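step=encode ok
step=design start
structure_in=
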């Protein structure tokens, strides 16, 4: 058993003198502090059973957990089956799949022109909602892409092939069978 001392403070308000400010009467308050002490007894019981249970919980490793738990070693794998060997930290510090990260790095140069066009369109049309901006940017991007393709095609004339493909045959109309026609 251990005894502790607690000290508490209480304040008492006293009215000193009225002060005149701007036509309104205001009362100034002065505070004084009184200290009192109290003695309390506290008891704390601990058992060895609780200590061992808590220690065992800290050492326990989950089988399935989040990517962060797998990265920190608190779980063996994610629900998708990723282990720590399959994870990598991205630029913002989140654990992500190595395969998906590599795939994204490869796709970035392909998507960069579209992203740049969309950002420029969004700056030019701030009054539109994001959905409208995406639609408008998509239409203008397709026109720009077609114009760029025409320019590239005009500078490089296409070669005509000598005959790799056969011309399509025209289908013959079906003949009606006798007796099944309309009378």
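sequence_out=
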């Amino acid at each position: 058993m251990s005894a502790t001392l607690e000290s508490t403070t209480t304040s008492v308000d006293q009215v000193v003198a009225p002060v005149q400010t701007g036509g309104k009467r205001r009362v100034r308050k002065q505070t004084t502090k009184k200290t009192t002490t109290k003695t309390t007894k506290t008891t704390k019981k601990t058992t060895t059973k609780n200590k061992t249970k808590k220690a065992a919980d800290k050492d326990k490793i989950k089988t399935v957990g989040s990517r962060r738990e797998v990265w920190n070693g608190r779980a063996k794998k994610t629900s998708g089956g990723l282990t720590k060997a399959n994870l990598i930290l991205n630029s913002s510090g989140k654990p992500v799949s190595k395969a998906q990260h590599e795939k994204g790095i490869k796709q970035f140069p392909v998507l960069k022109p579209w992203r740049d066009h969309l950002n420029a369109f969004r700056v030019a049309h701030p009054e539109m909602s994001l959905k409208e901006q995406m639609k408008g940017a998509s239409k203008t991007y397709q026109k720009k892409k077609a114009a760029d393709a025409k320019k590239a095609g005009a500078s490089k004339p296409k070669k005509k092939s000598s005959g790799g493909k056969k011309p399509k045959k025209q289908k013959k109309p079906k003949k009606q069978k006798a007796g099944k026609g309309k009378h």
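step=design ok
step=annotate ok -> Residues 98-124 form the longest helix (27 residues).
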